[in-house]
Amino acid sequence: MTDLQDAVHEGLTVLRQLIQIDTTAGAGLESKAALWLCRRATERGWQAKVVEPQAGYGSLLTTFKGRSEDALLLLSHLDTAPVGSVGDWSRDPLSGEIADGYVWGRGAVDCKGLVAVWWAVLLLLERTPLERSVVWAAAAGEETRSPWGARWLREHCPELRRCSGVLNEGGGWPLRLGRTPFAVCQVGEKGYARLLLPEGRAYACGQVRIHARLPEAHRTLLRSAGGVAGAWAARLEGAAAVWFTQWMQRNSPHALDPHEMFCHCFEVRRSVEYPGRHELICRALPGELMERVLDHGLRRWGLRLNEGCDLLELDEPTASPLDDPLYEAIHAAHDLPVLPYIASGRSDSSWFRNAGIPVYGWFPHIDADDLMRMHRPDERISVAGFTRAVERLYTLVSRFAADPAEAATKRIPLRLR
Q1: Are 28 and 86 in a shared domain?
Q2: Are residues 287 and 391 in the same domain?
Q3: How many structural domains are present in the chain?
Q4: Which residues have a Cβ under 8 Å from the Cβ of 387 and sit 6 or more positions away?
Q5: Is residue 150 part of a domain?
Q6: What are the transmembrane regions (predicted)?
């Protein structure tokens, strides 16, 4: 049986070698990484394959079969943000170098770090009797919302259609509210719309925020973390919720943006795609249809949605339930109280939530400083954080997917020297 130290060692090896494979988003480079992972997986006897609906956009699918048809999906992606200027990095961004207790390179956290964590978790699951099947997907095209990545897999692969729950990136971050440490679990994402504004008018670039009715996730966060004062802020909503959250996070190493948490956010900017024109970007919380939010926001500029505005992109907000067994398992398996939150960005999670499948962003124990380096120079992940993530996620997955009789007595195989 593989123990934790061996699993972590191999996971770090996988991470370092993946970083050395350039999978910059939008270039169709993921197949090389997917094929490399597939060869390594099949050498271990895993049921693995590469799915490539478009040349270069290959994704890895690996299945550990359980006794039931129900399955848990472990989601990750192979593409990365561009490196940018190599001169801004203190180390080679495609080296996967280990130094000072960190693995350095593009994708170390987002998202090759999670790819490698799932690899280590599967090593530990190799001989675990499973009730639920466990499916691992290392998908192409996440950073560009490509139609050839997780979206295509969900629509065309039977393995993913059987999944009733998904664990993905996007949460697990440490958060201190007042004197109490928490971890945040991403349970939804704001909607996104991009509109081309009418010509012949003067627009000032800038941002506008409109207070929204709080989604249940953020009501729960305020009530759980803030006691009586938090319940008061949740009831008053608006500026009270923003102020209270800012004040509660004053000593937190990583802070959530309270305006994104409690407001529909609008931004007017010059269009790159249409020179000489302006675009409106909207990020809207769950609870209202995007069309209604957009119409409300456009009135700030004296505009109406159906009068001269061209809709370029539209994604509705998504949210997963807070009473789902997978979310409850996340609470039970973690060493800190867990709070739900709605993310302002978009990820592959939306493809599954839109199909009615609960998704929870949960990549725990990543240092706050490492989170700030995603999509920036000197991206890195600490070896200690990687190890803790493997341990916690193995505990979660094994308890949730294992045979109930096995799960009752399950202990992680430790042998740290």
Answers
A1: yes
A2: no
A3: 2
A4: 4, 8
A5: yes
A6: none
Amino acid (1-letter code) at residue 42:
T
267 in a domain, yes or no? yes
Confirm whether 62 is domain-assigned: yes
Q: What is the pLDDT of residues 220-256, one digit of tens each?
A: 999 888 787 888 888 878 888 999 999 999 999 889 9
Q: Is the domain of 157 the same as that of 129? A: yes
Apex CA 352: angle with CA 83 and CA 80, to 5°?
Answer: 5
Please indicate, yes or no, if residue 337 is contained in any of the structural domains: no
* pTM higher than the cut 0.85: yes
pLDDT in tens, 19-71: 999 999 999 999 999 999 999 999 999 999 999 999 999 999 999 999 998 99
Q: Tell me how far apart the alpha carbons of residues 278 and 41 are, in angstroms, rounded to a whole number.
A: 48
Q: Are 220 and 303 in the same domain?
A: yes
The angle formed by the CA atoms of residues 307, 313 and 317, to the nearest 5 degrees, is 105
Contacts of 322 (CB under 8 A, 6+ apart): 187, 216, 217, 220, 340
Q: What is the CATH number of the domain that holds 80?
A: 3.40.630.10
User: In terms of domains, do 227 and 280 share one?
Assistant: yes
